[in-house]
Task: inverse folding
């Protein structure tokens, strides 16, 4: 059986200030084309279909379009809810939608009830484990301590119990949304830490043939049978080095797994550049980034004038500007709070200017500050006399 494993669509999410709905629609088209051209037998979507619990209307419309296009192909699709989704909202109409071959699994109590598909070699049981928020599901699974490992282990016990009652040779696929030990995170995933522990060991999933994971946005292999597809689009500059893709998985008659990466469309490459502003504007080696979405980190010791305007002249798609001034060893960076001790109002103001700009005020600026403080003191004196 051939599976297409994807996850973390995050429909409705923007990239900094860029609306990504068009790129998300392009990905859905690519997904449908891949299913048709690569003879896919089932699609699995491992959570975070939406970016938030109450998605914008345009994202819901795109999801609706995706469901119709997948149903028209006649290829079964299985989806679970992730930590960004509202399980109840995503699961509305699941029974009716299931008649069209789109199986939404958002109820934790149904972890041990699979969707069973058949190929030339027999049955394959698909178990959907939606994101399990420990505090909310610990009673359902009868665990004393609300932790990710405990609730996932309990859910997998139900999976293995159901699988053991089925005909020998039944193959199995688990969809789960979790942070599995060994996975590499990025800046765009929402933290799911509970009690200081977010990760669960991959051994929790022992006993099944393939585990289609969602949550982490980088495509990665934990073991030969446990994989993250990653998000189809980048949602932070920490993903600059990611190759966005889906897994095309062939599940053999004996449960063997062969996996191939299928690249996703890239709306625009990402680039992180760093250095003094003048060097970034002049460096010919950076020409390859002129059409990329850019995060620029400026290391000028003094904040330059109009840095974003000047950067966008060369890099018109600059989205993020970071200041990290390089200071000499004789000018260590001290906390602003530490600079306040035993300082006059004038000195505090001058220190503040130096703190945020990298250099103190010049003589003219010092005079402006002095006049401002004198005016404030004069006003206070008048008020006190008036009392």
Result:
């Amino acid at each position: 059986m051939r599976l297409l494993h994807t996850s973390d669509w995050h429909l409705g999410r923007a990239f900094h200030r860029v609306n990504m709905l068009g790129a998300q629609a392009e990905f859905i088209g690519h997904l449908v084309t891949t299913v048709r051209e690569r003879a896919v037998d089932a699609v699995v979507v491992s959570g975070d279909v939406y970016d938030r619990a109450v998605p914008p209307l345009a994202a819901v419309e795109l999801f609706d379009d995706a469901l119709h296009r997948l149903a028209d192909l006649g290829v079964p699709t299985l989806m679970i809810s992730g930590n960004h989704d509202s399980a109840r909202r995503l699961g509305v109409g699941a029974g009716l939608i299931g008649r069209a071959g789109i199986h939404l699994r958002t109820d934790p109590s149904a972890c041990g009830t699979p969707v069973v598909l058949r190929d030339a070699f027999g049955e394959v049981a698909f178990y959907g484990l939606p994101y399990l928020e420990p505090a909310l599901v610990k009673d359902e699974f009868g665990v004393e301590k609300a932790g990710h490992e405990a609730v996932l282990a309990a859910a997998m016990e139900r999976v293995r119990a159901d699988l053991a009652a089925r005909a020998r040779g039944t193959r199995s696929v688990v969809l789960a949304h979790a942070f599995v030990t060994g996975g590499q995170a990025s800046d765009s995933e929402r933290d799911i830490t509970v009690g200081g522990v977010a990760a669960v060991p991959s051994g929790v999933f022992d006993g099944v043939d393939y585990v289609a994971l969602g949550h982490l946005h980088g495509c990665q292999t934990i073991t030969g049978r446990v994989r993250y597809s990653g998000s189809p689009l980048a949602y932070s500059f920490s993903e600059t080095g990611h190759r966005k893709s889906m897994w095309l998985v062939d599940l053999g008659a004996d449960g063997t797994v062969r996996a191939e990466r299928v690249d996703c469309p890239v709306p625009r490459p990402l680039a992180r550049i760093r250095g003094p502003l003048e060097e970034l504007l002049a460096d010919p080696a950076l020409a390859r980034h002129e059409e990329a979405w850019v995060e620029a980190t400026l290391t000028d010791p003094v904040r330059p004038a109009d840095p974003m305007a000047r950067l966008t002249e060369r890099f018109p798609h600059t989205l993020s500007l970071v200041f990290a001034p390089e200071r000499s060893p004789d000018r260590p960076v001290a906390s602003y709070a530490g600079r306040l001790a035993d300082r006059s109002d004038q000195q505090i103001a001058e220190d503040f200017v130096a703190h945020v700009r990298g250099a103190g005020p010049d003589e003219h600026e010092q005079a402006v500050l002095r006049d401002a403080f004198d005016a404030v003191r004069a006003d206070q004196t008048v008020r006190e006399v008036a009392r």
Notes: The chain has two domains: 2-263, 270-386. The chain has a mean pLDDT of 91.
